[in-house]
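Journal club prep — side note

Before the paper discussion, L.F. wants everyone to see what a predicted structure for a comparable chain looks like in token form. Sequence:
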Amino acid sequence: MNTKLTLNLDKSIIEEAKSYAKENKVSLSKLIENYLSSLTKTSKKEIKVSPLVESLTGIISSDIDERKSYRDYLSEKYS
């Protein structure tokens, strides 16, 4: 259901937004709606993990010192 909204914005911003909307073949209302939607959904967005990734979680031990492993690898490679 659409509802009418009145906004008070700087005239130059409105003109630039109208120009942008026209170049992108979208209405100014839709442009603002999409922007507001993206603002509110990013904080509520839940990261979905695929079943494969879920099944791999915890396979690698967390007590590994990655930096030491990488230094050892480089030392062996360039020695």
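L.F.'s comment for the group: Residues 14 and 75 are 59 Å apart (CA to CA). Keep this in mind when we get to the figures.
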